[in-house]
Description:
The protein is mostly helical. The protein folds into 3 domains: 2-187, no CATH class; 196-407; 441-519, Alpha-Beta Plaits (2-Layer Sandwich), CATH 3.30.70. The chain has helices spanning 2-9, 12-29, 31-58, 64-82, 84-112, 118-139, 141-170, 175-180, 183-193, 198-208, 215-238, 242-251, 255-267, 270-297, 308-311, 318-336, 344-350, 354-365, 369-397, 402-407, 409-454, 486-497, 515-521, and strands at residues 462-469, 472-479, 502-509. β2, α22 and β3 form a beta-alpha-beta unit. The longest helix has 46 residues, at 409-454. Mean pLDDT is 78; it is low at 1-9.
Amino acid sequence: xxxxxxxxxxxxxxxxxxxxxxxxxxxxxxxxxxxxxxxxxxxxxxxxxxxxxxxxxxxxxxxxxxxxxxxxxxxxxxxxxxxxxxxxxxxxxxxxxxxxxxxxxxxxxxxxxxxxxxxxxxxxxxxxxxxxxxxxxxxxxxxxxxxxxxxxxxxxxxxxxxxxxxxxxxxxxxxxxxxxxxxxxxxxxxxxxxxxxxxxxxxxxxxxxxxxxxxxxxxxxxxxxxxxxxxxxxxxxxxxxxxxxxxxxxxxxxxxxxxxxxxxxxxxxxxxxxxxxxxxxxxxxxxxxxxxxxxxxxxxxxxxxxxxxxxxxxxxxxxxxxxxxxxxxxxxxxxxxxxxxxxxxxxxxxxxxxxxxxxxxxxxxxxxxxxxxxxxxxxxxxxxxxxxxxxxxxxxxxxxxxxxxxxxxxxxxxxxxxxxxxxxxxxxxxxxxxxxxxxxxxxxxxxxxxxxxxxxxxxxxxxxxxxxxxxxxxxxxxxxxxxxxxxxxxxxxxxxxxxxxxxxxxxxxxxxxxxxxxxxxxxxx
Length: 525
C-alpha cells in the first residue's frame, strides 16, 4: 500500500501537472518577466526550427516550401531578439491577413452552399469568427497579447490541475498512462471519467426547462418574478438606489433560461436551445418595455445624466466580460453541485441581468440613446459570457459524457461556433470602450497634473474642480491673487495630451473674514 502510494505521488503525470500549475501561477503573478521569457523561448524555438529546415534545404531534402518556411522562422527569431515590438506587430498583421483570407473563403463557401445544408450556417459562423478575430488583432494588438498570455496561463493552471487530480486518483492503477504523462491522453482519460449520471441530468432538466407536466405553473411563476424584478430594478434606477437594485438582482429569474440554454448546447438539444433563447429574447423585450412604461409615468429622482446606476452600466469594457465569465462558471458549478447552490445569489449580484435592461428602457424613454446602447451591450456581454463559461464548466463536471458529445460533434460544432463568434463580435466594441476609458483617464490625469504645475505652490489660488471633455477643459479656481496666463496652461495640456485643447478658467474670488477683521472693515450684519 505504501509502495503504491509513493509511486502514485511521484508519477510523471503528477510532476508535469504540478509544473503546469506553478508555471501558470508564475506567469499571472509576474507578467512582465514572463513576457520576456516567452519572447526568448519563442525566438529560440523559431531559430532552431528555421535552422533545421534550412539544413534540410541545403541537403536537398526540402524545396521551395521548406526554404520559405525556414527563412520566415529565422527572420522572425532574429527579429524577436533584436526588435521584438516591430517583429510581433509584423507577425500579427501577417496572421490577420491570413485570417481575413480564410474568413472570405468561408463566407464565399456559405453563399455557394445550398441553403438547406447545415454546413452553410457553420461556414458563416466561422467567417464571422475569423473576421472578428482579424479586427481584434489589427485594432487592439497589445490588449490581445495580454489576453492571450492570461488565457494561456489559465489554461496551463486548469490542465495542470486536471493532471494532478487524475494522477492522485488513477496513477496507481494505470501506471502506463501515468508514466507517459502525455497531456492530451491524461486530460482525455480524466474527461472520460466525468459523468454526473442520468438522475442528475434528469433533475437538472426538470429544474431548468419549462416542460410538462408543470409547464404552465413554471412559466407563470417565471413571468411574475420577472415582472416584479424589473419593476424593482426600474424604480431603483429612477431613484438611484444601489441597495434596491441589489434586491432586484436577487429576485430576477433570468438566469434560469440562460443556464438552460448552456445545458442544451452541451447536450446538443437543438429544440431546447431554440426554446430557451426564445424565452430569453421575450424576457428581454418584456423587461425593456416595462421599464419604458414605468419611466414614462414616474419621474426620475436623480437626473439620468448624473445617475450612478445609469453611468455604471453605460460603458462596459472587457473587464465586465471577464467578470461575467467567472460568474458564469461559478453559477454553472453551483447549479449542478447542490453543496454550493447557496452561492447562486452572489452570482446573480455579480452578473446583473435585469438592471441593465431596466437602464435600457429608462434611457430609451428619456431619449438617451448612447446610454441605452451601452447598457444593452452590457446585457449582451453578460448573456454570451455566462453561456460560454457555463458550457465549459458543464463539460468539465461531466454533465454530458465526452462520448455523447463526440457522437453529436456536428451539432455541437454548429452551435458552439455561433456562441464563440458572438463573444468575439462583442469583444470589439468592449475593447473600443475600454480603450476610450483608459485614454480618458490618462487625459484627465495629465490635465490635472498640468493644472497643478501651472499654479504657483505659494499662491493663494486653489483648484476647486477640473472637468475634461474631448477638446475642452474647464478649470474652476477660488482664492485671492492673480491667475496665471491661460495660454500657458493650454500649451502645457496640449504638450501632455497631444490633443488640441481649449481651456476655460472660472475664477471665484474669496475673502477670509474673522471677527476682528470684520469690525476693522466696518462689516456688520
